[in-house]
């Protein structure tokens, strides 16, 4: 009896202390597939730092890089069901929710970063973000990475003909498949976390990615040739679980929105810096043979890839394509 009374007393005392309520922070899990030293990896850590600071520790952000928590195949579902609160997939990977996100894969749609950033701020992008609502997902921001380049381990890729018979890894979707088909090449969709092994084992001969993703994934160890083509983009939609986000206290939401806005600015700065830095690393690292295409050689690729526009204009919509073109003018 004495023991029972002591236990009851102890329990009552603990439950009534005010500290107990204070020390329970809201946990936000932020999962992504790249390394911490990429624009996305760094901006995720910046968001964590700002969010924890601005909420005085009432929010704790746990960042899981390198597909540690979820890979390409699982992360969307995990976010919809609330097992993770924030993910940042490249927009192509949203193709299953809205095929219009494949705008980003239309060959040579954007001439430079400025055009891409203008498009991010457009109504067309707002419309794409809002299309996620019905999946219990909310788009918060768009973060850039950069333009894609081709790598492979068979031969230098200088003309469209050089692609014939090769097989490339793609992120997702039919537009990328059609792009390689237009060049006479095959393709296979492979999750980012499995791509190094697929290249190493020869499941595919090559892949396309940004300088920084190639560099931080160390593809130069298992690929021989890189062609600077800037033919497509990798950029990210920062997505939260909608019920979680709308259930937050207004002051917490405000602090997190501000943190996201600052982290987005930081992501843009880092994307430019890391793109250049990784380009230099790859060019001067002595592992890859680097090909920079002349304007005439680039024009030959543009012509060879034109059928992709004819095939996908109705899927992506003329309005969206026109908005992207306008951003580049
Ligand atoms: C890829 O799968 O190649 C990229 O989307 C990875 C990433 O998140 O940058």
Explain this structure to me?
The chain has helices at 2-16, 18-22, 39-54, 75-81, 113-120, 123-130, 174-182, 195-201, 211-216, 242-246, 250-284, 295-305, 307-316, 318-327, and strands at residues 26-31, 59-64, 86-87, 137-152, 167-170, 186-189, 206-210, 225-228, 233-241, 289-292. Helix 3 (39-54) links the parallel strand 1 (26-31) and strand 2. The chain is 46% helix and 18% strand. It has 329 residues and is α/β, with parallel strands linked by helices. The termini are far apart. The chain has 14 helices and 10 strands. Strands 1, 2, 3, 4, 5, 6, 7, 8, 9 and 10 form a 10-stranded mixed sheet that branches. The radius of gyration is 23 Å and the shape is globular. Helix 3 runs antiparallel to helix 11 (250-284), helix 5 packs across helix 14 and helix 7 (174-182) packs antiparallel against helix 13. The site of (2S)-2-hydroxybutanedioic acid (LMR) has 9 residues, from loops. It holds the Pfam family DctP. Belongs to the bacterial solute-binding protein 7 family.
Could you name the key traits of this structure?
14 helices; 18% strand; binds (2S)-2-hydroxybutanedioic acid; disordered N terminus; globular; 329 residues; 10-stranded mixed β-sheet; alpha/beta
In short:
The protein is an alpha/beta fold and 329 residues long. It has 14 helices and ten strands. Helix 3 packs antiparallel against helix 11, helix 5 crosses helix 14 (318-327) and helix 7 packs antiparallel against helix 13 (307-316).
């Amino acid at each position: 009896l004495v023991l029972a009374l002591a236990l009851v007393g102890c329990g009552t005392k603990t439950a009534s202390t005010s500290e107990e309520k204070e020390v329970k922070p809201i946990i936000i899990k932020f999962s992504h597939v790249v390394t911490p030293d990429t624009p996305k990896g760094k901006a995720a850590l910046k968001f964590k730092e700002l969010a924890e600071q601005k909420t005085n520790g009432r929010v704790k952000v746990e960042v899981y890089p390198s597909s540690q928590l979820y890979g390409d195949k699982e992360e969307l579902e995990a976010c919809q069901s609330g097992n993770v609160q924030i993910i940042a997939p490249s927009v192509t990977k949203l193709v299953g929710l809205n095929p219009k996100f494949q705008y980003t894969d239309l060959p040579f749609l954007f001439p430079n970063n400025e055009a891409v950033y203008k498009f991010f701020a457009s109504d067309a992008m707002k419309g794409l973000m809002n299309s996620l609502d019905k999946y219990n997902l909310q788009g918060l921001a768009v973060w850039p990475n950069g333009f894609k380049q081709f790598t492979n381990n068979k031969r230098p890729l200088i003309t469209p003909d050089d692609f014939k018979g090769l097989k490339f890894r793609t992120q997702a979707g039919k537009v990328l498949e059609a792009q390689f088909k237009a060049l006479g090449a095959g393709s296979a969709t492979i999750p980012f976390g499995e791509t190094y092994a697929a290249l190493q084992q020869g499941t595919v001969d090559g892949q396309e990615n940004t300088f920084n993703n190639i560099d931080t994934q160390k593809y130069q160890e298992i690929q021989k040739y890189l062609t600077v083509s800037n033919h497509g983009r990798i950029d990210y939609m920062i997505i939260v679980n909608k019920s979680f986000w709308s259930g937050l206290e207004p002051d917490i939401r405000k602090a997190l929105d501000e943190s996201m806005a600052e982290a987005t600015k930081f992501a843009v700065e880092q994307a430019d810096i890391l793109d250049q830095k990784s380009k230099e690393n790859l060019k001067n690292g002595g592992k890859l043979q680097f090909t920079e295409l002349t304007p005439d050689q680039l024009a030959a690729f543009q012509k060879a890839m034109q059928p992709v526009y004819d095939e996908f204009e109705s899927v992506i919509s003329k309005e969206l394509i026109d908005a992207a073109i306008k951003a580049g003018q």
